[in-house]
Amino acid sequence: MDDKLMLMIPGPTPVPEQVLLALAKHPIGHRSGDFNKIMAEVTQNLKWLHQTENDVLSLTVSGTGAMEAGIINFLSPGDRVLVGCNGKFGDRWAEMSAAFGLEVDTVKAEWGQPLAPEEFKAKLEADTDKQIKAVIITHSETSTGVLNDLETINRHVKAHGEALIIVDAVTSLGAVNLPIDKWGLDVVASGAQKGYMIPPGIGFVAVSPKAWEAYKTAKLPRFYLDLGKYRKDAAKNTTPFTPPVNLMVALQVALRMMQSEGLEAIFARHQRLMQATREAVKAMNLPLFAPDGHSSPAITAVAPTNVESEQIRSVMKKQFDIALAGGQDHYKGKIFRIGHLGFVSDRDILTAIAALEATLRELSYESMSPGAGVAAAARVFAQS
Amino acid sequence: MDDKLMLMIPGPTPVPEQVLLALAKHPIGHRSGDFNKIMAEVTQNLKWLHQTENDVLSLTVSGTGAMEAGIINFLSPGDRVLVGCNGKFGDRWAEMSAAFGLEVDTVKAEWGQPLAPEEFKAKLEADTDKQIKAVIITHSETSTGVLNDLETINRHVKAHGEALIIVDAVTSLGAVNLPIDKWGLDVVASGAQKGYMIPPGIGFVAVSPKAWEAYKTAKLPRFYLDLGKYRKDAAKNTTPFTPPVNLMVALQVALRMMQSEGLEAIFARHQRLMQATREAVKAMNLPLFAPDGHSSPAITAVAPTNVESEQIRSVMKKQFDIALAGGQDHYKGKIFRIGHLGFVSDRDILTAIAALEATLRELSYESMSPGAGVAAAARVFAQS
User: Could you tell me which CATH number the domain at A17-260 has?
Assistant: First the structure.
């Protein structure tokens, strides 16, 4: 049905009505006192969301632009970086690092499996002359629904002492606990169209004092993504280049909503949505792609065997107006992904699971008892 | 009055209601057939607006990001570039070029004065061993309201034969004739919040076949701003990184409005708005900053002598809810700027001039006969 689309993809995520209406307000000038006030509030609330006193800078870029800023501002050509690769985004950061002339070493895991912290430990301990300048980790690997064990990997980085830890938190920020100051994370990049509940168009980078120290001697060329310029202007509640004004106004509203829900409640909700989705998928006898204990609260990837992923997505879209994501790169057609990130409620999961059951019936999938998925999700909701 | 603000700054520019409402629609997935269709239409209409068969690529960046992409994709460290500097933005491109290790030569003019094409001619003719790889020109210098003579400068670049011409068209595109194919412009960068009539958050870069040739051997590192990636994906009506979906939907609506008005009518309207504004300012005995014959149809800068610029802006804002722009850098407080770019009508100019007259009276400015400004603007409208 026209205008009936329900987004269950890992971004853009659904946007609350009050945020959409804020987006539709006439823009104001970004060199005005009124905009300075918005920036001041947004910056304060971004720090709250990031659980940090570090700078949190807003750029007119997508998540990839935020990660690029997070890498090029703190490194020099030839610097050795250790990149965790267990999905499309980890691979992308390795490719990006190579494009900027960094010497890239990787820790790999199969798509759908988590990175092994002990492999980082081994490489970092072996680096006695401290040549590794940064460790780059994708916290929630959007392409597979795996949540990497950032806390443990970060402990090994801290034991190394020299390397910065640079985190892609694009689908983890606002979905799972990520205490930047407590853990001592140096650079954390994220994007608007995820946990923030606003449409795409702003990238965020949180930067620690240690990273700012590295910035001073980092030699990769930069201008538009030069975070020093953003830091200098953020102190005056402004930006060096034109910010996406309407998105910033929308962000102001969305951050107020997040504050009113509370961080703990937001994390608990995502945990519950993930749990209900995974239990429902198991009850439908569909194989989960990410193992228990390593799954992302933002997205659940499913790897069906007796039924085609793309057929499922097609019926879900055409008959039930629910957009699911497909697999990426070599997993195209092999998995489908259910996004449950941002402005998603318990009801949305029941809806999606009910539609998935109906879709499976439509596709003559026989390995499940009717109603089992919805019942399993309901059980999780009743228990939590 | 609350919610009554009228934007007369050079960006963000006013946004039509139908564009604002499009912006407030629920986002859709950018990896969907529905989004591909939007991209296909938008790309086609962008080519129409740019008067070109060249690629016109859309990036999630502000205008500065678009210019950076326009420079770093086609040059290598140490390449010599010739940059026209007669305002804040020309200066910015010189600074940016230096940040990327380019060897920067400049042609300068005082702020408020146009660049002299013959100075480009002399430097380009002297470059017999073709060391100048690119000439970088700001077409409409937003900081001063000067329109540089791009057509003549470009002719000298063409006579040189080797150098690319890279154009900042941020406040000229959609305001003044800029026939990319006819003139043979290689790289033209612009931004959403100007002639496009949508809020900030998309940058555009048009790229000629000659520039793509240079791209093949250009050695500056790039990833997020790598235009080759955007070109490859644009052929499939998609983008390498997440596009600002809602802004793209808004752009679709805005481009349809522009097509329905027609290019010639749009240019004539901006010409008329500029003429009416300038005649009115003259009639009020306020000095225009840019000379006749070299003024931008996007913005009129005024350099008042017997009255304070910042006082004028303050009364205009507080009493009449009209936002004017101030001067930038060393012209802060010395000039004010009236934006008449994008979704601006004859009525808006009458309104702004009437308010400016009332403001001058409020400030006890005595060098004008009451009503002279509005009368002068009305005369222009009656004649055109």
Answer: 3.40.640.10
**Cβ-based contacts of A21 with chain B (< 8 Å):** 24
* Whether B277 contacts B349, CB under 8 Å: yes
pLDDT confidence of residue B318: 97
Average pLDDT on B334-350 reads: 98
pLDDT tens by residue, A229-271: 999 999 999 999 999 999 999 999 999 999 999 999 999 999 9
Arithmetic mean of pLDDT over chain B: 98
Cα-based distances in Å from B299 to A28, B347, B368: 17, 16, 22
Give dist(CA A145, CA A382) in Å, integer: 24
Closest-CA residue to A162 (of A187, A144, A135, A192): A135
Average pLDDT, chain A: 98
Whether the CB-CB separation of A339 and A197 falls below 8 Å is answered with no
CATH of the domain spanning A6-12+262-383, picked from 3.40.50.720, 3.40.50.2000, 3.40.50.150, 3.90.1150.10: 3.90.1150.10
Distance of CA B315 to the CA centre of its chain: 27
CA-to-CA distance for B261 and B39, rounded, in angstroms?
A: 21
The structure tokens 């809602």 sit at B246
What is the per-residue pLDDT for A91? 98
Confidence of residue B143 (pLDDT cuts 50, 70, 90): very high
A68 has a chain B CB within 8 A of its CB: yes
B60 to A9: CB separation less than 8 angstroms, yes or no: no
How far apart are the C-alpha atoms of A327 and A322, rounded to whole Å? 16
DSSP string, B33-88: HHHHHHHHHHHHHHHHHHT-SSEEEEESS-HHHHHHHHHHTS--TT-EEEEEESSH
Cα A375 from Cα A224, distance rounded (Å): 51
For residue A62, list chain B residues with Cβ-Cβ distance below 8 A.
Answer: 60, 224, 241-244
- CB-closest option in A7, A29, A241 to B64: A241
- pLDDT tens column, B209-231: 999 999 999 999 999 999 999 99
Q: What is the pLDDT of residue A384?
A: 86
For the cut 90, the answer to whether the pLDDT of residue A103 exceeds it is yes
Work out the number of other CB atoms within 10 angstroms of the CB of residue A95: 13
Q: Which residues contact B210 (CB under 8 A, 6 or more apart)?
A: B164, B186
**Is B60's CB within 8 Å of A99's CB?**
no
A4: closest chain B residue by CA: B26
Q: What is the DSSP string of A130-191?
A: --EEEEEEESEETTTTEE--HHHHHHHHHHH-SSEEEEE-TTTTTTS---HHHHT-SEEEEE
The verdict on ipTM greater than 0.90 is yes
Which residues 20-39 in chain B show a CB within 8 A of chain A?
20-21, 23-32
Which 3 state secondary structure label does DSSP give B147? strand
What does the domain layout of chain B look like in residue ranges? 6-12+262-383, 17-260
Residue B384 banded pLDDT, cuts 50, 70, 90: confident
Q: Do B61 and A224 touch (CB under 8 A)?
A: yes
Residue B206 Cα, gap to closest chain A Cα (Å): 19
Contact B325 A63 (CB under 8 A): no
DSSP state of A74: S
DSSP A1-57: -TT--EEESSSSPP--HHHHHHHTSPP--TTSHHHHHHHHHHHHHHHHHHT-SSEEE
CA angle A185, A80, A62 (to 5 degrees): 55
The label of the residue with tokens 């100051």 reads A181
